[in-house]
Amino acid sequence: KRWYPKTPKGKKNTVSSMTRIETRERLLGKIVKARLALIDPGSQRRQRERTSPADHYHISKYARTSHDLTEWLGDLTDDLAVTDFIPRLQDHLLARIRRIEYTGDEFEFTDEDRSQISIANNKIYEHSTLQINYTTYDLRREQDSLNPRTRADIMVLSHETDEERHPYWYARIIRIFHVEVWNYADASMTKPRQMDFLFVRWFGRDPTYKSGFSAKRLPRIGFLKGEDPCAFGFVDPDVVIRGIHLIPAFEHGQTDQLLMDSFVRREADLGKDWLYFYVNM
To answer: What is the mean pLDDT of residues 193-199?
Structure first.
């Protein structure tokens, strides 16, 4: 429409004139971009890496930053979120290396078992985004781009067995990490194996609240208390189904009783958590 007033009157010339205008604008746009690149090469944003739709998830090859694991945990000494971080991480990695089926609870290994693996250089690498490929309800392929700042909530398959079981479990991504792991039990290993994982804060379902299609109400969930040993954990990105949209239950307000001051909260949370959320369906 914006090109039409620039064309000469008459149906015969309208299409060809609009085509010439579009071509001219496109070429001028390329010239401007090339000029900017010459003036300031850093002004051009790095293009997002192409991801294969055949892969369930993608994390960049290049870590945003890295931490010495001991120093990083030393700065968070009083934070409940990182209680027993290293042995629990070792348990998570060992279970995956030994192909123990994930059932929702981390398998607890002995210190002797844990000594069979080592994190190379004691380094933990942090990433900013995670892409998840999934199939929609109408059998289309889609991709969610997740990050701990603005879109951090995920769903995985539930492993509940009781009569009131819910099909999914929900968590919030705190950080996206990878580590390089040596497995001393594998004599053929010549270089460490990269293992991606998510450090998450788990939600729990409100058992007193009836929800679902029969109740005509959205599921209601809330964060577990920080003292709960299941409040925080690790998730293999390969078991994430997709991202979710949570609606704060405004009528129940916020609280600072679930967790003391912690790095896991975003700045916008102002040191508090919503007591409940509704899972948008």
So the answer is: 95
